[in-house]
Amino acid sequence: MRLSTTSLVLLSSLAAFVLIGCDSDNPVLSSNLRTSTFMLSPANEVPPVVGPTSSGSATVTLDTNTNTVTVSATFTGLSSAPMVIPGTGSSAHVHQAAMAPFDQNNGGVVFVLTVTTDPGGLSGSMSATSTLDADQAAALLRGEMYINLHTMDWGSGELRGQITF
Q: pTM for the whole thing?
C-alpha cells in the first residue's frame, strides 16, 4: 500500500496532535487544570477594611489529577509592611472559610505563601505551590478558600481575594 504525500502529512499532524495532547504539562490541552484569576481588595476582608488604597491580583491553578495548587499574586500600595503571623512564618496565606457564605467568613490557614516586597516594602508578589488533600481540593473547587495578606497596620488582613473557579 502506498500513501500519498497529503496522507503522510495528515497522519504526521494527527500523531503530533495526539502526542501533545498526552502531555500533562500543556495547559491548553489538559482538561485537568482549573484556573481562577481574581482581584485582592481591602473591601473583601471580613470585616471590610476601610482606608487603605492597596490592591492586588492573583491567579490560582489547580491540577485536579494531582491536587497540586499553584498561586501567583502581586500587590501594591499597602498601608504598612507585611506582618508575619506567629506560627506560620509568613504574612500571606491561603485560608479555608469556616462556614458559608465563604466570602463573608474567616477560617484557618491551609498553606502559606512566600512574600517578596520591593525595597519600600509596600508592593511586591506572593507565590506558592502546595499539594492539597482530597477534602481540601474539593473545598477549593467549591469556593471555600481565599488569599489573605496581613500587614502591620491591619494584622487580621489588609488584602483578601476569594478563590472561585
A: 0.81
Q: Give burial (CB, 10 Å; 0-12/13-18/19+) of 42.
A: buried
C-alpha span between 152 and 121 (Å, rounded): 11
Give the span between the Cα atoms of 110 and 94, in whole angstroms: 6
Cα angle for residues 37, 125, 29 (degrees, 5° grid): 40
Average pLDDT over residues 24-51: 84
Q: How far apart are CA 123 and CA 126, in angstroms?
A: 10
- pLDDT at res. 1: 52
Which residues, in sequence order, are CB contacts of 21 under 8 Å at separation 6+? 29
Rounded Cα distance, 97 and 160, in Å: 12
What pLDDT, on the 0 to 100 scale, is given for residue 37? Answer: 98
Determine the Cα–Cα distance for residues 152 and 134; give it in Å rounded to an integer. 34
